Amino acid sequence: MSLWKVFTRGIIEENPYFVLALSLCPGLAVTTSVVNGLTMGLTVWFVITSNNVVVSIIRKTINKKVRVPVYITCIATIVTCVQLFLMAYAPDLYKALGVYLDLVVVFAIILARAESVASKNGVVVSFLDGMGMGIGFTIAMVTISIVRELFGNGTLFGVSMFGASYQPALIMALPPGAFMLIGFMMAGLKMWNKSREMKKMKGSEA
Amino acid sequence: MGAYFTLFIGAVLINNFVLTKFLGLCIFFGVSKNLNASIGMGFAVTSVITLSTILAWLLYNFILVPFGLTFLRTITFVVLIASFVQLLEIVIKKMSPTLYNMWGIYLMLIATNCIVLSVPVLSVTNNYNFIQNIVFAVGSGLGFALALILMASAREKLDYADVPEALKGTPVAFIVAGMLSLAFLGFSGML
After folding, report:
1. For the residues of B110-170, what is the DSSP string, one character each?
2. B170, A21: Cβ pair inside 8 Å?
3. DSSP string over A64-99
4. Residues of chain A with pLDDT under 70
5. For A147-156, how does the pLDDT look when each residue is reduced to its tens digit (9 = 90+)?
6. What is the pLDDT of residue A192?
7. What is the predicted pLDDT for the residue at B4?
């Protein structure tokens, strides 16, 4: 597989959020505003990429039997660094993300990439895979939070979009709206992927 | 006594972990296809949450706080929970093989799950005392079990429903969860 393919597969085809459906909690919990969604996306992007690199460097020295605890400790260390950084430079964001920042440690997607890619491949491939997956995750976070902030609050990045006469659809900001929105987004992506496959099949027949 | 009751009801219904805080979704969507599995999972999660929250509380307040190591919270809790679950698995396997056959497979899934990590973290960030801590942990666990069992009952019926092709599987499960969550919002006026 070419390196370019490794990098791009995480963005749409194997989008960690909508297609692999891993680590669903953050997409619902912190996406009430675009800033929060973006911070969470960037945090995961950083953690997944650096963890992939670290795991890929140490992959030959760790005993197969204890690999999962080792990976988890690596992830927890990186997450703690991000936490301390945010606490120092962006205390408001740190408060807004709250417990979900701690939970980055147990996001299935990070462990899954470490186990399935970084533990078997070299540094370059692992790095590109982490970057791609991170971008895919960030795109998912930002898309969801744009829809939710726009309709639930009438704003984007805190700036009013529709003027004062707009009545916000509060349900989008509340949990039920989040669940339903993601349900429909997943269905939409599924349809889109399918129609692309159909086109490809038709193209090869002709 | 009243304050503890409020805390308990709050954890089970009003701040239900799955439906209003979105924690434990991987298990919630993964296991809820089958009602019997959901009941087993619900109670396995409740017991693991309760025991690991007690351990985490003791560790935090008697070791991390006195030595000024609170920034190591995340790492210690993760390692504590993972090793505790492993230990529990070994003990159950030796003591009661029947129980192990019923719940054993769920224990591994629980080891790195957001709901099990978040209850101890929330408990120490809210500065609960020891008894509040236990009440909160049991309440959160039962709230998770309740949501899981409700969801599984709904999904068993959903198998016979005529769902549009693109919505089949996870997407429609999300929409059902949204409706359940809407129902749980009704509890927020209770206290």
Report:
1. HHT-HHHHHHHHHHHHTT--HHHHHHHHHHHHHHHHHHHHHHHHHHHHHTTS---GGGTTH
2. yes
3. GGGHHHHHHHHHHHHHHHHHHHHHHH-HHHHHHHTH
4. 1, 21-22, 163-164, 204-206
5. 888 887 777 7
6. 83
7. 85
Which pair of structure tokens corresponds to residue A7?
A: 């990098």
Question: CA–CA distance from A200 to each of A18, A197, A204, B94 (Å)?
Answer: 21, 5, 6, 55
* High-pLDDT (> 70) share of chain B, %: 95
Could you tell me if B82 and B61 are in contact, meaning their C-beta atoms sit under 8 angstroms apart? no
Provide the sign of the torsion angle of the four alpha carbons A176, A180, A186, A188, taken in this order: negative
The number of distinct structural domains making up chain A is 1
8 Å CB contact between A140 and A18: yes
Q: ipTM strictly over 0.90?
A: no
Q: Are A189 and B174 in contact (CB under 8 A)?
A: no
pTM of the model: 0.82
Taking the CA atoms of residue A63, residue A65, residue A69 and residue A70 in that order, the dihedral angle to the nearest 10 degrees is 10
Q: How many Å apart are CA A97 and CA A102, to the nearest integer?
A: 9
Query: Hunting for tokens 């408001």 — which residue is that?
Result: A92
Nearest CA among B136, B135, B186, B176 for reference residue B28: B176
Contact across the interface for A24 and B22, Cβ inside 8 Å? yes
Distance of CA A92 to CAs A95, A102, A153, A203, Å? 5, 16, 19, 52
**What's the pLDDT at B54?**
92
Q: Indicate the number of domains in chain B.
A: 1
Residue B86 has pLDDT above 70, yes or no: yes
**A→B interface, C-beta within 8 Å:** 21-25, 28-29, 69, 72-73, 76-77, 79-80, 83-84, 99, 102-103, 105-108, 111, 174-180, 182-184, 186-188, 190-191, 194
Question: Which pLDDT belongs to residue A156?
Answer: 77
Give the best residue of B53, B112, B158, B168 to mutate against chain A (max A CB count within 10 A): B112
Q: Which residues of B touch A174 (CB under 8 A)?
A: 185
The total number of residues written for chain A in this structure = 206
Chain A residues lying within 8 Å of B181, measured CB to CB: 175-176, 179
Query: Which residue range(s) make up the domain with A136?
Result: 3-205
Q: How many CB atoms lie within 10 A of CB A158?
A: 10
pLDDT, residue B108, reads 67
